[in-house]
Write a structure and sequence with these properties.
Number of domains: 2
Strand content: under 5%
Mean pLDDT: 86
Keywords: Metal-binding, Zinc, Zinc-finger
Oligomer: single chain
GO molecular function, one term: zinc ion binding
Protein name: TraR/DksA family transcriptional regulator
């Protein structure tokens, strides 16, 4: 991979990392540090209806799950930046062949080529 392509990939990964950090931080603040009343925007002294509480709990759980998924993606982005520094970026970690440019355009933090990823996914599906 030439230096111009590496620079573009690095910029894209760093931008993605900053975006993920910001979104994870926002989700954590909304879910973990606000009371139920603050999160709902209701600052009155009235108690919540059970249905409202259930909806709020669902929303909080959903946002926590979203934050977990985004933390996993952040981990992959940071590993991709490490591979870029080590000169291993764009090489499939399974078969050691180059990862297709279209795949890297779609998922710049991809660790495996599409063939190896499909094999891994189908193997997981068979064991599930």
């Amino acid at each position: 991979m030439n230096k111009i392509a590496q620079k573009k990939i690095r910029q894209r990964l760093e931008k993605e990392r900053e975006s993920l950090i910001s979104e994870i931080s926002r989700l954590e603040k909304d879910c973990l540090y606000k009371s139920q009343r603050e999160a709902s925007g209701d600052l009155s002294g009235y108690s919540f209806h059970m249905a409202d509480t259930g909806t709020d709990n669902f929303t909080r759980d959903f946002n926590l799950e979203l934050a977990t998924i985004e933390q996993k993606i952040l981990y992959e982005v940071e590993r991709a930046l490490e591979r870029l520094d080590e000169g291993k970026f764009g090489i499939c970690q399974q078969c050691k062949k180059k990862i297709n440019h279209q795949r890297l355009d779609a998922i710049p933090y991809a660790r495996m080529c599409i063939n190896c990823e499909e094999k891994k996914t189908s193997h997981k599906d068979q064991n599930a």
